[in-house]
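Please, structure for the following, as tokens.
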Amino acid sequence: MKAIQVHEFGGPEVLKLEEISTPQPTAGQVLVRIHAAGVNPYDTYMRNGTYAIKPPLPYTPGSDGAGTVEAAGSGVAKVKPGDRVYVAKTVTGAYAEYAIALESQAHRLPEKVSFTQGAGVWVPYGTAYHALYHSAQAHASEIVLIHGASGGVGIAGVQIARASGLTVFGTASSQKGLDLVMREGAHQVFNHSKPGYLEEIMKPPAAAAWISSSKCSPT
């Protein structure tokens, strides 16, 4: 199979497309044919060698992906060959035609959700959920400010917060980003590249009680 291999830490140039053996699942594992892979900031930090976790070299990057189950090892009951799934982390790396995942890392993907969308579930939405509910302890009827809301985690936060009944303020640094944040469900948007944008947020009607971005940061 074709896979991205990293033989030394560094910039994008260390990503090499190579032909390697297709891994085979053992007990409790599934082999997923990857249709789409997610790219997250920490994937790039790991590739650069600046992340706290440094995988043994060579390695295939990628924790988020989506595709179909190609094969399942013994004892796997949650999914079966042919099932559409997204993976929340992998054993062998998602930047490849095939990836091994633990049964607990493979989750069914509804038919109405594309593989591209599925590849963006785990890190962005998991991070946003953790920020909103584990860190900020957000509740319906509150107002939340999501700084950098046009990014992956930001969009996830806007969608989750709006669906949960919060009033959502979002920031971005361009008109394109502001338009995107509004489409994804924000009630009001603010350009954080403009001087005085925080004062603008605090003016009525924006100046209701809100959860500050420092309390509910996606990072």
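The first helix runs from residue 41 to 48. Confidence is low (pLDDT under 50) at residues 207-219.
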